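In line with agreed milestones, the collection of sequences with tokenised folds has grown. One record among many is set out beneath this paragraph:
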Amino acid sequence: MVQVHAFCVNGKYFVYDVLGGSLFEIDMIMHDIIKQDTFDEDDLIEALNGDYSKEEIKESLDELLELKKQGLIYCQLGESEIKKPHGMSIKSMCLHVAHDCNLRCKYCFADTGDFGGPRGIMDLETGKKAIDFLLEASVGRKNLELDFFGGEPFVNLDVVKELVEYAREREKQYGKVFRFTITTNAMIMRQEDIDFLNKEMYNVVLSIDGRKEVHDRLRVDVAGKGSYDTVLRNSKKFVAQRGDKQYYTRGTFSAYNLDFSEDVLALKEQGFEQISIEPVVTDSKYDYAIKEEHLPIIFKEYEKLAKIYVEKRKNPEEWFNFFHFMIDLENGPCLYKRLSGCGAGCEYVAVTPEGDIYPCHQFVGNKDFLLGTLDEGIKRKDIMDKFSCNTVLTKDECKNCWARYLCSGGCSANAYTYNGSINKPYKISCELEKKRLECALYAKALESEK
């Protein structure tokens, strides 16, 4: 099982300890020694003698062995399979208040908002049932998370506001606390809505793809017209009033804009400081799909962005966060979360406008993963059990991967969609995630030098 990972980003060499979480900047010879996966001096001299002298190899090997002796790398912590029973409590819910949208984004995983079914919105009573379900299902938990989702939740914002009020009343009765988030395209955001979001929402996700020409190519309205100007105007107005509360702009890059670092910078230039640009995940038949032949280009782009990121964060006026470069090696997630990821299907569920319960928003509409309904409760505890057992220690591709405790095994929905199993990660997503993590570790190391 892989214990350390040696890598190079922008000409700098590092080693990351998988179990211990330590990170060191190293020189090229130690990087090459670690890559040989042996401590035998004679074997290393034979393998690397054309590149380094015997003395250089011996000296670097001695340094590596000293780090190992001190327990700083090649940690020997125990790993065991961890299973949580299907009776575990649910702590978060994605509430689909609308299966409709005022945009028709061409890459939308939700089929432009209807999730492959009839368009519709959630009524107030169904929303209340969902909140009551979460309160009852969250045994032993005080802090609950509720994400208002769509489609576009703003097409049903009046119900959202009433549900927030209802949840605030019910949380007092149960001795619990709700944290609300909402994901919106910001197309129909009024001042009164901004006031509501800033009062009640713990986090707000604004969908915008970066440069105007990139955004308008795939994010169009019902009439086929680009939405950038309206989205940008409303998003900037919202962020200007957000203060120090959480938000982030969430964009998507595709084969059309493999130079996506320019989209990150475009968002920064518009005044946004919390930024995420993520790769599109879609069928390879589409021209905009990310394919394996694109990976080398994307890897170079992530390295380019990482270098820019580190430099800009030195200046308070240019500082910004990039979601995929945010990494905490000292106070990161608990062990179970590192093993299992988002908790889909066991700690986290999604509820449709009709009251159907699914493992997460990306499984909505797939009846094979229908867990139950708000009226009948959870009927398919066998499905929940499969998700609770689905960890990096049960996935063949993850068991020996250096990134297993940082990526937590990837997205189960993508794994199922492209490989037919929640236990078999989607290869392209894995490769992209590993590169993002290398760049995140690079940024972490360079910022720690301050």
